[in-house]
């Protein structure tokens, strides 16, 4: 199909400026967007993110590009704290609901896609799960150890941020700032407070665990996206997207481990949508101020929600209230 003439520019979070879009491969666009961690029903913040990227995918297809849209499902490894502390969010929910972790995953994955279907959000071409890509994650961790970018301590494998000079290039944070802003007692087996987990040793009561060269454990949250994006889009691809809150540490860590392992640029364009707020405070499951899409659909049609979200710029915050929705 012929590509329609266009002058498409994208704001690239990596360069902090608008850039003319040039695909890596003529006529093809590879897009990876961080999907949900499926331990509860989706909320309006999820809707803003995935509606925003739905528009981007639709526009590329309108222009005539063949698009491969990959959006993962995080079903293991996302801990309660970004500092590699706490329990796995899905395992916590499984205990609360007295279910197997994979029952929780299946329930809320189905719920997520039901909500996205209602919002007329196109389904991704590929929806890989972290738990289905354990061998790839172990292999990348092994590669990083061999190349000197990672180290193992008592069954835990960490990426050494000091070995990667460009760490911080996406978020603009320096290692000195990270070190001074970190609590002294965080993960005492790390060489630097900002080092992040590639593989975590599993406690005896940890349900989701796999055998590895370092013993029984589970992958770090950041590793899954590097492995799944490169598997389905290549080691260098066009666009990586996600919420603004994922820029650091998640996306910063993705770049570091991917470029260190593969010795080539990772994603060429980074797009970040901003968040939904309630009374000026970020909406989120962990903050307890979220409005689930199922609750929102009880008062408003899904198309009202979609058009409300599309009424704001994707990089701007959107403050939610019933008055604003019907204003």
Automatic annotation (TrEMBL):
Q: What is its main location?
A: cytoplasm
**Matching SUPFAM superfamilies, A to Z?**
Nucleotidylyl transferase
The reaction(s) this protein catalyses: tRNA(Cys) + L-cysteine + ATP = L-cysteinyl-tRNA(Cys) + AMP + diphosphate
Tell me which Pfam families the record gives: tRNA-synt_1e (PF01406)
The region annotated as signal peptide is none
Single GO MF descriptor: ATP binding
Q: What is its EC number?
A: 6.1.1.16
- Enzyme class label: ligase
Which GO biological-process labels does this protein carry?
cysteinyl-tRNA aminoacylation
> Which terms in the GO cellular component ontology are assigned?
cytosol
Cite the PANTHER family for this sequence. CYSTEINE--TRNA LIGASE, CYTOPLASMIC (PTHR10890:SF3), CYSTEINYL-TRNA SYNTHETASE (PTHR10890)
**Family indicated by similarity:** Belongs to the class-I aminoacyl-tRNA synthetase family.
- Quaternary state and interactors: Monomer.
Q: What is this protein called?
A: Cysteine--tRNA ligase
Organism of origin is Caldithrix abyssi
């Amino acid at each position: 199909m012929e590509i329609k003439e266009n002058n498409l520019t994208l704001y690239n979070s990596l360069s902090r400026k608008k850039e003319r879009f040039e695909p890596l491969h003529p006529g093809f666009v590879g897009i990876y967007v961080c999907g949900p961690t499926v331990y509860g029903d989706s909320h309006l913040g999820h809707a803003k993110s995935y509606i925003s990227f739905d528009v981007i995918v639709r526009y590329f297809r309108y222009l005539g590009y063949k698009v491969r849209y990959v959006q993962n499902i995080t079903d293991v490894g996302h801990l309660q704290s970004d500092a590699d502390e706490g329990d796995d969010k899905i395992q916590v929910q499984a205990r609360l609901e007295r279910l197997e972790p994979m029952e929780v995953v299946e329930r809320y994955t189905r719920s997520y896609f039901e909500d996205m279907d209602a919002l007329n959000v196109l389904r991704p071409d590929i929806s890989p799960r972290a738990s289905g890509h354990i061998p790839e994650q172990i292999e990348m961790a092994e590669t990083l150890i061999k190349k000197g970018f990672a180290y193992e301590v008592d069954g835990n494998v960490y990426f050494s941020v000091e070995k990667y000079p460009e760490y911080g290039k996406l978020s603009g944070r320096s290692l000195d700032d990270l070190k001074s802003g970190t609590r002294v007692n965080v993960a005492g087996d790390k060489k630097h407070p900002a080092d992040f987990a590639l593989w975590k040793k599993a406690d005896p009561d940890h349900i989701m665990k796999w055998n590895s060269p370092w013993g029984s454990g589970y992958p770090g949250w950041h590793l899954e996206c590097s492995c799944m994006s490169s598997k389905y889009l290549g080691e260098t691809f066009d666009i990586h997207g996600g919420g603004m809150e994922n820029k650091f540490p998640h996306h910063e860590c993705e770049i570091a481990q991917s470029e260190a392992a593969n010795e080539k640029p990772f994603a060429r364009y980074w797009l970040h949508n901003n968040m939904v707020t309630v009374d000026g405070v970020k909406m989120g499951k962990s903050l307890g101020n979220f409005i689930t899409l199922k609750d929102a659909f009880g008062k408003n049609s899904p198309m009202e929600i979609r058009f409300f979200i599309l009424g704001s710029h994707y990089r701007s915050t959107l403050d939610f209230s019933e008055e604003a929705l019907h204003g």
